[in-house]
Amino acid sequence: MGGPTPARRGSSFGLTFATMSVTILAIESSCDETSASVCRDGRILTNYIASQAIHEQYGGVVPELASRAHMQHIVPVVDIALRNAGVTVSDLDAVAVTQAPGLIGSLLVGGSFAKSMALALGKPLIAVHHMQAHVIANMIADPAPSFPFLCLTVSGGHTQIVICKSPLEMEVLGETLDDAAGEAFDKSAKLLGLPYPGGPLIDKNAANGDPTRFSFPEPQIPGLDFSFSGLKTSILYFLQHGRAQDPEFAAKNMNDICASIQDRIVTILLHKLGRAAKETGIKEICIAGGVSANRGLRDALVALGKKRGWNTYIPKFEYCTDNAAMIAMTAWYKYQQGAFADLSMSPSARAEWA
Predict the structure, then answer these.
(1) Contact in structure between 90 and 122 (CB atoms under 8 Å)
(2) Torsion-angle region of 60 (φ positive above 0: left; ψ -120 to 50: alpha; else: beta)
(3) For the chain, which end, N or C, has fewer CB atoms within 10 Å of the first or last residue's CB respectively?
(4) What CATH number should be reported for the domain holding residue 80?
(5) In this structure, what DSSP letter does residue 194 have?
(6) What is the chain's Cα-based Rg?
(7) Does residue 246 form part of some domain?
């Protein structure tokens, strides 16, 4: 659970803020994390997350099992979040929820609960775009970036470079053409025989390995877009060749292989981010999303930022993975503009940026 943290807010955002206190309950259920958060006047009072360990035995998220777990978790999760924040439902001014993108069954659970609660309380409903919320995670605590800033959002399903001009004005400059960086980490881990979720395990093993021991190609994709499918294929063939020589090849070289894979993925990400910074002239640089918890990426960003003269920002670990605090923070900005959703709104597995 996250304690109270200061938010960056004021006239510099170009918004007109209400003088009265505003308390928002936010719900996140886009994948396999059931999360609820309470935000008051741009400060996160609580951020509670219930994970779903059941997917580990299947090597990935099973959508039907995820939606069922959300139905089991959502009432106690919301109750815990409210109690830990010292807030009752009568104190709420709005209810926010992730509308898109994500697993449709999971989104339906959170969306239906939030709509029912908003209707019962007679309070506004705020629909939030999951990827925009990841970007806004950088605004939860000080120090926070100044606008405009660039954000590299990296997760299991998305890899994007976004220019954030204001809390609610964003533009995607580049994105993956096929697989996401997080998927590349997890699929590589699976090829190595590591359990799900494998991305964090690659990061852990890489800390004790030599990133120059093995070489993997960098896709030559024009512009600011990404591609990771070719890299995954290269890693597959590399391991097949190594195991043909020695069945224990991966196990004997695990740390060095993980370090080499991680180094290549991080290099791909930061090369594109560096190009975006050069093209836009922006020196306020952030990362966000589940992969932003990767220590290799975090350390490399800080090092590159010092070299390039950037001001770099990285969310706390609890705000990197899917969480309701980022939904709550985004909803708070939307509340200021009266950007409320109709109770007939439907979740979407995929959605354009709002």
Answers:
(1) no
(2) left
(3) N
(4) 3.30.420.40
(5) P
(6) 20
(7) yes
State how far the Cα of 308 lies from the Cα of 56, in Å rounded to an integer: 40
Type of residue numbered 88 = T
Distance CA(344)–CA(279), nearest Å, equals 41
**177 and 256 housed in the same domain:** yes
Nearest alpha-carbon partner for 147 in 332, 39, 285:
285
Is residue 152 within 8 Å of residue 305, measured between CB atoms? no
The first and second tokens of residue 278, run together, are 């050069």
Sheet bearing 159-166, strands edge to edge: 169-175, 159-166, 149-154, 284-288, 311-313
Using a 10 angstrom Cβ sphere, with 0-12 exposed, 13-18 middle and 19 or more buried, the burial of residue 122 is exposed
Domain that holds residue 247: 147-315
Report the pLDDT value the prediction gives residue 6, as an integer from 0 to 100: 33
Assess whether 309 and 323 both reside in one domain.
no
Nearest to 158 by CA among 259, 232, 226: 226
Q: Tell me the pTM.
A: 0.90
Q: How far is the C-alpha of 110 from the C-alpha of 97, rounded, in Å?
A: 7
> 87 with 73: CB under 8 angstroms?
no
The single-letter DSSP state of residue 96 is: E
Looking only at the bridges linking them, the beta strands covering 311-313 and 284-288 are parallel
Q: Please, which pLDDT band fits residue 7 given cuts at 50, 70 and 90? A: very low
Say what the pLDDT of residue 66 is: 85
Residue pair 96/118 in contact (Cβ under 8 Å)? The answer is: no
User: From CA 174, how far away is CA 166, in angstroms rounded?
Assistant: 18
Band of the pLDDT at 55, cuts 50, 70, 90?
low
In terms of phi and psi (left: phi > 0; alpha: psi -120 to 50; beta: otherwise), the region of 41 is: left
